[in-house]
Design goal:
Layout lengths: L1 H4 L15 H8 L25 H13 L1 H12 L7
Length: 86
């Protein structure tokens, strides 16, 4: 979501709670606590949401494959952290 919002110039301001009718209503209408399945995962393909042309995406992919540090990061993301820190 942060990546999708980067193209906007946002201004954030304080609004007194008594003037935030929708947020107050939603905060009072919560669902009762339920046990969620800890194994439940959601997979999101961020490539669909990036405002990047196909040409630029191919350039990023090629440069990522050529960068040693990014290959280490890619391995950690895909396989998890190593047993011992080096």
């Amino acid at each position: 979501m942060i990546i999708r919002l980067q193209k906007y110039d946002l201004e954030v301001g304080y609004e007194k709670g008594s003037k935030m009718f929708l947020a107050d209503t939603l905060s009072r209408a919560f669902l009762p606590a339920s046990k969620q399945d800890e194994n439940e995962l959601e997979t999101i393909n961020m490539m669909k949401y990036l405002p990047v042309s196909e040409e630029r995406l191919l350039l990023i992919q090629r440069d990522t494959e050529a960068d040693e540090s990014l290959q280490v990061l890619k391995t950690v993301i895909q396989k998890g952290c190593p047993e011992h820190r080096k």
